[in-house]
Amino acid sequence: MSRRSGVLEFAVLGLLRESPMHGYELRKRLNTSLGVFRAFSYGSLYPCLKTLVQQGWLAEETGHSPDDPRATPLSNRRAKIVYRLTADGKERFEELLGQTGPDAWEDEHFGVRFAFFGQTSRDVRMRVLEGRRSRLEERLAKMRASMARTREKLDAYTLELQRHGMESVEREVRWLNELIESEREGRPHRASPQDRGPGEPDGIQGRHRAGSSEDDTTT
């Protein structure tokens, strides 16, 4: 399974743990709650759902949705498949929730993992946060080394773009330091208004979109 497919599997299982949903509703939740999935289409989602059903982690049920925008104009009702998490699916999500390897620290997966931190144990949250911080500190060191080597060859605009990328990573490192300190002290972290991205409940997805291409500056 590819890394991107693994992220989608994790998110689908996590959302369906909250309540059963049909495909349209699930896709809407992926798009609105987890900004990293805004580019996903039904062509990506339904093969994932089919695989999860085959694995026994989801069950399909048939129902109707009067508010589904894809409903036929005449009846305004459309038979739909509702996806429900099975007992095996819950165990699978718990297994994924406890994983703290390098994939959990990367840009795309970290944003999704963070969205489910409310269901994650404290020790796992700490390992993921500390792993993410280490990953970004490594990236920051590479960016600084790259800038030191190439700054004399770059025009002012390219140099400013690299500085902007570096500042984005530095901001996230500071934010992670605050989160880690909050976890150690056992107090909840509250995002300040300036942390939030446009139309987002917090700034996590905005920051990860900004930081997701920093590796490109190290070449």
UniProtKB/TrEMBL annotation:
Q: What highest taxon heads this organism's lineage?
A: Bacteria
Q: Which UniProt keywords apply?
A: Coiled coil
Membrane-crossing residues? none
The segment(s) forming the Transcription regulator PadR N-terminal domain are: 12-95
Where are the residues of the annotated region Disordered? 181-219
Which residues does UniProt call coiled coil? 126-160
Question: Which Pfam family, an example, fits this chain?
Answer: PadR
Enumerate the InterPro entries for this protein. Metal_resp_DNA-bind_regulator, Tscrpt_reg_PadR_N, WH-like_DNA-bd_sf, WH_DNA-bd_sf
Write down the PANTHER family for this protein, in alphabetical order: CONSERVED PROTEIN (PTHR33169:SF26), PADR-FAMILY TRANSCRIPTIONAL REGULATOR (PTHR33169)
Q: What is this protein called?
A: PadR family transcriptional regulator
